Amino acid sequence: MIATERLLLRPWREADKPVFHALANTPAMMAHFGGPVPQAKHDAIIDRMMAQQERHGHCMWVVELLGTGEMAGVCGVRIGGHPDTPVPEELEIGWRIGEKFWGQGIAREAAEASIAWSWANTDRPRIAAWTVIGNRRSWGLMERLGMHRRADLDFRHPDYAPGDPFGAMIVYAIDRPA
Predict the structure, then answer these.
(1) What 3-state class would DSSP assign to 166?
(2) How many domains does the chain have?
């Protein structure tokens, strides 16, 4: 679907579910999501991504290494989908890159490709991203991508209990170039 110098961003397949779960369900990978989860939770996330792809033509895609076809993680854009928050219909960019691929610029390469794809293929006025305040690597990448902090869009993630620190989302956004 989207090819970069080193990566292919593509839609999900059923066979990706156990591969993603093994890649993403480590203590380090899940540190900002409340810790490891049962595979059924990741499967449900992938099912939602597959539905987003079908409905909107995009989602947070699988990130594969071009040379080997190995899954390195996930990156792409989706419709925010969190009712009763400031971001229910925002075009959200997100990424999760496997630990063994950290520090190689894969998240940035995939995110830049996803942003370029979004400007070329949607009419959205901006792209937003959110994370917990403690996830410095993630919001640091948001800043390197040219995104700016939007405290007016911060929200409590509905999947976390009130008071759970993992539910306090900070939001960054980038406006469509003129």
Answers:
(1) helix
(2) 1
